[in-house]
Amino acid sequence: MTGEPQDDCLFCKIVAGRIPATVVRESGTTLAFRDMNPQAPTHILVIPKAHHPDAASLAAAEPGTAADVLREAGEIAGEEKLDSYRIVFNTGSGAGQTVFHAHAHLLGGRGMQWPPG
């Protein structure tokens, strides 16, 4: 069920404290931690604590929490002293989503080309 923790979800396990992560910020609705396979000098994942399979389902079910994810990403960018950064939501395996729990990638610390890969 959307919103409920999933036993087989990596990010739900991180939220529950069953898998360690390098947490950089936590709010009532979100958790942010460093990506284990960084694609930039700063690569932080910002996730809702509630399970939603992708950004669109999160926005439909909990628009306030979707806004919290974006707000937290901006706050973290400031804390990390990033003057330029990218926030990415991958939706679906064809777009590179590998963990089906909504999450934003905060990337910075290097030049970002357009269009991306």
TrEMBL record:
<feature type="short sequence motif" description="Histidine triad motif">
    <location>
        <begin position="101"/>
        <end position="105"/>
    </location>
</feature>
<dbReference type="InterPro" id="IPR011146">
    <property type="entry name" value="HIT-like"/>
</dbReference>
<dbReference type="InterPro" id="IPR001310">
    <property type="entry name" value="Histidine_triad_HIT"/>
</dbReference>
<dbReference type="InterPro" id="IPR036265">
    <property type="entry name" value="HIT-like_sf"/>
</dbReference>
<feature type="domain" description="HIT">
    <location>
        <begin position="10"/>
        <end position="117"/>
    </location>
</feature>
<feature type="active site" description="Tele-AMP-histidine intermediate">
    <location>
        <position position="103"/>
    </location>
</feature>
<protein>
    <submittedName>
        <fullName>HIT domain-containing protein</fullName>
    </submittedName>
</protein>
<dbReference type="GO" id="GO:0003824">
    <property type="term" value="F:catalytic activity"/>
</dbReference>
<dbReference type="Pfam" id="PF01230">
    <property type="entry name" value="HIT"/>
</dbReference>
